[in-house]
Amino acid sequence: ETGVTQSPTHLIKTRGQQVTLRCSSQSGHNTVSWYQQALGQGPQFIFQYYREEENGRGNFPPRFSGLQVTNYSSELNVNALELDDSALYLCASSLALGGTYEQYFGPGTRLTVT
Amino acid sequence: AQSVTQPDIHITVSEGASLELRCNYSYGATPYLFWYVQSPGQGLQLLLKYFSGDTLVQGIKGFEAEFKRSQSSFNLRKPSVHWSDAAEYFCAVVRNQAGTALIFGKGTTLSVSS
Question: How many CB atoms lie within 10 A of CB A7?
């Protein structure tokens, strides 16, 4: 059984650019959530996808968008990058909506915006 | 609105001493509560969870937590800390509007002294 994987590990972008982060869910899971973790803070919920449909969104602007594809890979896209977008982005997968509520996290992608 | 508060930003404990990390939550109904641990440069690992039933729950690595509804608390404990327990600890509650998405506290950094 493979765990949650994320790519790339690290990324440096310039303010105003666009970025795509990728996540591969744990085998058998059908729900993916994305979180932003700023330095010294707890993770903040960005959005969640269940069976390819967005199923909840946190307090993030529309320039944060995503998608989930049939093999349960997921992408997080951020447009018009700002300096405050510098953070660790975590992907988490879980089995079924409203099931055990256990989320399994990937190692994260460290995004630096200069 | 739901929230999680971890009052202690940083705690230092001697190796072999007992540990208690505090967590308070704000939630109207019965919460689903979690403790996660994050080592430097790593993703989040689930230590334990509470959904219902016995208010004292056991987790991995010798950790336990007690749910106290009257105090809106879910404190994490360990009877004897090991140097390898040094890490960041996060308490979280399920976000009620969106499946399995979580609301995290800001975390407590645990240092272990010899």
Answer: 13
